[in-house]
Specification:
The complex is a heterodimer of chains A (253) and B (275). Chain A is built from eleven helices and no strands. Chain A is mainly α and 253 residues long. In chain A, 25% of the residues are buried. The chains are: A mainly alpha (253), B alpha/beta (275).
């Protein structure tokens, strides 16, 4: 399932041990770079640059499954941009491909981030960056419940298929209509669960007003500092190249 | 007849849920599948209508290999009521909810109407027919989920924890339904932790331990064997436990209040002095 590309995979690699804030910065730099350039070759290089990182983090298989999951939307973005070019936006033929690839870079860089960052670690990083706890908590809870929701969808589909519902036959409209018996129980049980969790949390003192303390503290190590400097240097050079040079013809279209 | 031949199942994550399960469930029979949580009971019943296909061995329903038929086709014969009703209910009214599978299976309009009436009455739900199923209590939702499966009268009715959240009256109704179904030549299979209910129904019992069938026999045989039950984290029905405590392992199994009453009275009459 596509969501697996965003699920944390336990590991002891250097990438896993990096401070979550540094990992977030790396992903962010990938995104910013993809927005700075619309040259197909640069975007392809950005995508390929993630391969050794994913491989080092031991999550290459999962990261590739994200790419696979993105294929449909990427093709859609390509097709829509192609239509606009057709009606004379003045852009070259490489532009739609670049836009599709930009989308791939943005999503897959965050896929890489979530694959090597535990949700709690991510929450801790946000919390220690002084983001309000309520916001952090809502975010980390949302991530943590993705696999639960996926399991629930499976159980609901099993129950409805057992009542003779055929999910994968008929035309597109019929298939969408047949998803309603899946969607309603999913929404209802999600809302019900969130209310139950809220009550259970309140029953255990959530929101009592005292300042919260953390069991773990994040330590910014030397290697974190080194990687941060390197990442920022790469960002600076990307900005410099963008502003001061026009890319050689063979890189653009 | 449903046959499971040396069935093994490993979930995609690598968890081995079933290991070499062989079981034959004949027509007009009744079977309770029991065991601790995580023993593989729900995984096993999901094999009966092809929701899960065995990773080794094979499952056949009336001679049809579940690998070679769609879930919808197999479900017409094997109706499964899952444990959590919240995963099943979606329609605007209880009536629509019950009619949903009948429409899926292409029943004619008047038949849908008649069956809906019958099954709502059977499960004590007629007064809720125009209510949203989502607003009912847990036990009522469970009954709606059961009603929607029973509506098409599957040849094999499979129920996952049917007594969960049900009061005495509804348990009695359930027993009556089982008897009615069996009289019509249907088969009932239920997964349950409710040893009292399994004993009262007098089903055969298959004990599942760590994905394997560790014992298979009549309710009397299995539910009075304390050692076997211990392995499956179950206890004998309370009445049986009481008599085992009073008379030792040699005691004849006593499962219901009526049986206990008869035994005590006969002992008193014969003046044996023992309860």
């Amino acid at each position: 399932m596509a969501y697996r590309g965003f699920m944390f995979k336990k590991g002891e690699t250097g990438l896993h041990r990096l401070d979550p804030r540094v990992k977030f910065l790396i992903s962010l730099v990938f995104v910013v770079c993809s927005l700075l350039f619309e040259e197909l070759v640069v975007l392809a290089i950005l995508t390929l640059a993630m391969v050794p990182l994913a491989s080092k983090g031991g999550v290459l298989k999962e990261w590739l499954s994200t790419l696979k999951g993105l294929a449909f939307l990427a093709v859609l973005i390509f097709a829509i941009n192609l239509v606009f070019i057709f009606f004379g936006s003045g852009k070259s033929w490489g532009f739609p491909a670049a836009m599709a690839l930009r989308f791939v870079v943005v999503v897959s860089s965050f896929s890489l981030f979530f694959l090597v960052t535990a949700p709690d670690e991510f929450g801790l990083a946000l919390q220690q960056s002084r983001i309000p706890f309520d916001v952090v908590f809502a975010l980390t809870m949302a991530f943590r419940f993705v696999p639960v929701l996926a399991l629930e969808v499976q159980s609901i589909a099993d129950a409805q298929r057992s009542k003779g519902l055929e999910l994968d036959s008929g035309n597109l409209i019929a298939r969408i209509k047949r998803r309603i018996p899946l969607l309603i129980p999913l929404i209802v049980s999600s809302v019900k669960r969130s209310l139950e969790i809220a009550e259970a949390m309140e029953a255990r003192g959530y929101g009592s007003g005292n300042p919260r303390t953390s069991l773990y503290k994040l330590n910014f190590k030397r290697v974190d500092l080194a990687v941060t400097v390197l990442t920022l240097a790469m960002l600076a050079s990307a900005v410099y190249f963008r502003l001061c040079f026009s890319l050689p013809v063979f890189l653009g279209f | 007849m449903i046959r499971l031949e040396d069935v093994g199942y490993v979930y995609p994550g690598g968890v081995e849920a079933l290991r070499g399960v062989s079981l034959t469930i004949g027509e007009r029979s009744s079977l309770a599948i029991m065991g601790r949580s995580g023993a593989g009971k729900t995984t096993l019943i999901k094999h009966l209508n092809g929701l899960l296909k065995p990773t080794s061995g094979r499952v056949t329903v009336d001679g049809v290999d579940t690998r070679k038929a769609t879930v919808a086709k197999l479900s017409r014969k094997v109706g499964i009521v899952f444990q959590n009703p919240d995963h099943q209910l979606f329609a605007e009214t209880v009536e629509d909810e019950v009619a949903f599978p009948l429409k899926n299976f292409g029943f004619p309009q008047d038949e849908i109407k008649a069956r809906t009436e019958w099954v709502l009455e059977l499960f004590n739900l007629t007064r809720y027919r125009k209510h949203s199923p989502l607003t009912l209590s847990g036990g009522e939702k469970k009954r709606v989920a059961m009603a929607s499966i029973v509506s098409w009268k599957p040849k094999y009715l499979v129920l996952d924890e049917p007594t969960l959240g049900q009061d005495r009256e509804n348990k009695l109704r359930l027993r009556e339904l089982f008897e009615e179904f069996m009289e019509e030549g249907r088969t009932i299979i239920m997964v349950t932790h409710d040893v009292e209910f399994a004993a009262e129904c007098g089903f055969d019992v298959a004990l599942l331990v760590d994905g394997k069938v560790s014992a298979l026999g009549s309710a009397r045989e299995i539910l009075s064997n304390v050692e076997l039950l211990k392995k499956a984290s179950l206890a004998a029905p309370q009445m049986a436990e009481l008599f085992l405590e009073l008379e030792g392992v040699e005691a004849q199994p006593v499962f219901t209040v009526e049986e206990a009453e008869r035994l005590i009275l006969s002992r008193l009459m014969s003046g044996s002095g023992r309860p």
